[in-house]
Write a structure and sequence with these properties.
Elements: E1 9-15, E2 48-52, H1 60-64, E3 67-69, E4 89-93, E5 97-101, E6 106-111, E7 117-121, E8 152-159, E9 165-169, H2 175-182, E10 200-205, E11 211-216, E12 243-249, H3 257-271, H4 273-276, E13 280-285, H5 292-303, E14 308-309, H6 320-331, H7 351-365
Parallel strand pairs: 1-3, 2-4, 9-11, 9-12, 12-13, 13-14
Antiparallel strand pairs: 1-8, 2-7, 5-6, 5-8, 10-11
The chain binds guanosine-5'-triphosphate and magnesium ion.
Guanosine-5'-triphosphate (GTP) is lined by residues 169, 171-177, 189-191, 193-196, 218-219, 285-286, 288-289, 311-313.
């Protein structure tokens, strides 16, 4: 079996800890004949928390350990001893991970920047010990309240890589070569299609230390929307990008650039019409090759678009500076960072109601 190194979606069972039970204990000491109730409360169950981390570059861990269970709270005991709270389970995921509740189809939220946290399942509250029920009419209450169950559901994790610009192109067009030329990222580059098998993000650093994140994704071919080649699922990773960069192989004689461009746009539109509307940059790569100039002229004549000319194999990489400036120009006005998509606020529990309900339950349990 081929071992996986990259996983961008995963399903997991999530279970927050159960609250510890309250205790129904009484003091029992030889010198205290009628020792009263002394049962302490149970501890809170642990939460399940998702945390964004730059050290996690895929959802591999969730994929291989799909049971995310937080610790239960400890039961209360005699001598009014409060049970210990259950420990939270913190799950590190890549920046840009979204979480859904599959049982209800609800979007639970997303974590974007390193260190962002999101509580996806709350631990159950600890129950009350019998000390709470002592009153003038009942000096020896036997009732106590059990702990609440923690939230539990099936969760879906989806990674949408965070990048300012996304590279789109046919296999072998030179996307990874461009990323390698612009950033310190070292994607695999080779003269065959589908060299890149999963998204890679590189950071472009300008002379004044301004930075820009660029995502390289696997090549797209005609019919990708129907699953041909590696399909369109990787477009998800550029769906957060503010800008798309179409990389065209100007030297290709079988798949002419205007056809490549038409197909790419159609596939992007097919995936998400809104994505096709974003600002785009068109790059004519491999201008060093003999057939390139003629194809370039035909492309301009046919589409009315003037792509930026580029060669990544010639000395000095002619055209690269213009590409870097164009990216910066387009992205500069945007504020840094990602607008966070908020989940609908979860239904807050009305504690007075619940307490009454729990009280009835306690009465029922210990008449
Ligand atoms: N002549 C020429 N070759 C180039 C240029 N840029 C890239 N190449 C070559 O084109 C081939 C494919 O480059 P990659 O960067 O791997 O292409 P890719 O678009 O990432 O390909 P996939 O990952 O398969 O989608 C490599 O052999 C590169 O050396 C260029 O400007 N001129
Ligand atoms: Mg590549």
């Amino acid at each position: 079996m081929k071992t996986r190194t990259f996983v961008d979606s995963a399903t997991a069972e999530v279970r927050a800890g159960r609250g510890g039970d309250g205790s129904g204990s009484f003091r029992r000491e030889s010198h205290v004949p009628e020792g009263g109730p002394d049962g302490g409360d149970g501890g809170r169950g642990g939460n399940v928390i998702v945390r964004a981390s730059t050290h996690a570059d895929s959802l591999l861990r969730v994929f291989y350990e799909p049971r995310l269970f937080a610790e239960n709270g400890v039961n209360g005991t005699g001598q009014k001893m409060h049970g210990r709270n259950g420990e939270d389970l913190v799950v590190d995921v890549p920046c840009g991970t979204e979480v859904y509740n599959l049982d209800t189809d609800a979007f639970l939220g997303e974590v974007l920047e390193h260190g962002d946290t999101l509580t996806i399942a709350k631990g159950g509250r600890g129950g009350w010990g019998n000390v709470h029920f002592k009153s003038s009419v009942n000096q020896a209450p036997e009732k106590f309240i059990p702990g609440d169950e923690g939230e539990a559901f099936t969760a879906r994790f989806e990674l949408k890589t965070i990048a300012d610009a996304g590279l789109v192109g046919f296999p072998n067009a030179g996307k990874s070569s461009l990323l390698a030329a612009m950033s310190a990222a070292r994607p695999k580059i080779a003269n065959y299609p589908f060299t890149t098998l999963h998204p890679i993000v590189g950071t472009v650093v300008y002379g004044d230390y301004a930075t820009l994140r660029v995502a390289d994704i696997p090549g797209i071919i005609e019919g990708a929307a129907d699953g041909v080649g590696l399909g369109l699922t990787f477009l998800r990773h550029i769906s957060r990008s503010k800008m798309l960069v179409y990389v065209l192989d100007m030297a290709d004689t079988e798949n002419l650039p205007e056809n490549a461009y038409r197909v790419l746009r159609a596939e992007v539109e097919n995936y998400d019409p809104e994505l096709a509307e974003r600002p785009a940059l068109v790059i004519a790569n491999k201008m060093d090759e003999p057939a390139a100039q003629e194809h370039y002229d035909a492309f301009v004549a046919e589409t009315g678009i003037t792509p930026l000319r580029l060669s990544l194999v010639e000395d000095g990489k002619p055209g690269l500076d213009a590409v870097l400036q164009a990216l910066r120009q387009e992205l500069k006005p945007q504020a840094k960072g990602q607008a966070k998509r908020e989940a609908k606020p979860r239904q807050e529990v009305d504690h007075t109601e619940v307490s009454a309900e729990r009280f009835r339950m306690a009465t029922f349990l210990k008449p």
